[in-house]
Amino acid sequence: MSFSLGPRGCFGKRLAYLEMRIVLALLMWNFRFAKLQGELAKYDTLEGVTVMPRSCYVGLERVEL
User: Where would one find coiled-coil regions in this protein (predicted)?
Assistant: First the structure.
């Protein structure tokens, strides 16, 4: 647990989550996500208790405003 729990938990948790939301919003605002060509477009998964991506490559194209 990176932020811990309870009344003595990290007081910067809310700030960290807010910053992550801002970064994600800026990425969505300034870039277009594109599918990659060739070998990098392959989507492999690791299966265990949950299924998670082994690797996930995304192409970014800058949006001109």
Answer: none
